């Protein structure tokens, strides 16, 4: 059993990318699906698809690399954890690396990036940052 599924997702992606794998399989959930959708839209990962791994729903994620096999994802940070939730108002939504990364926020209107939050005037729970 995993106590923090979002941190597990980020670690599996980062570890697989550092090892040079083409794809990685992670257990599926709605929240993970939304996070993966944002990472794909922002260009951090390739396409992903839902499948069954050992009878359980899972996502197969294709990883992306830049020149000389360097992974596109240089780093990840889990902001709000099960032991310490982090909420921000619409005026306090953080940027990641001066706008070079993406911060993923769970709002009342769904999971979105920090840029979408500012545009919509929403705050929420800051899930993670990817750069």
Automatic annotation (TrEMBL):
Example of a GO cellular component annotation carried by this entry: ribosome
GO molecular function, one term: rRNA binding
Protein's UniProt keywords contain Magnesium: no
A Gene Ontology biological process term: translation
UniProt keyword terms in alphabetical order: Ribonucleoprotein, Ribosomal protein, RNA-binding, rRNA-binding
Keyword Lyase: no
Stored PANTHER family: 40S RIBOSOMAL PROTEIN S15A
Family to which this protein belongs: Belongs to the universal ribosomal protein uS8 family.
Cited function: One of the primary rRNA binding proteins, it binds directly to 16S rRNA central domain where it helps coordinate assembly of the platform of the 30S subunit.
Quaternary structure annotation from Swiss-Prot or TrEMBL: Part of the 30S ribosomal subunit. Contacts proteins S5 and S12.
Descriptive protein name: Small ribosomal subunit protein uS8
Organism: Nitrospira tepida
């Amino acid at each position: 059993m995993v106590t923090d599924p979002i941190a597990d997702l980020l670690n599996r992606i980062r570890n697989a990318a550092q090892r040079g794998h083409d794809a990685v399989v992670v257990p599926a959930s709605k929240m993970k699906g939304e996070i993966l959708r944002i990472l794909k839209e922002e260009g951090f990962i390739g396409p992903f698809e839902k499948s069954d791994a050992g009878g359980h729903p899972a996502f197969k994620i294709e990883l992306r690399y830049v020149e000389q096999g360097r992974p596109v994802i240089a780093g990840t940070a889990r902001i709000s954890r099960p032991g310490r939730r982090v909420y921000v108002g619409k005026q306090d939504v953080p940027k990641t690396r001066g706008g070079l990364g993406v911060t993923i926020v769970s709002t009342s209107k769904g999971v979105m990036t920090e840029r979408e939050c500012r545009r919509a005037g929403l705050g929420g729970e800051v899930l993670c940052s990817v750069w």
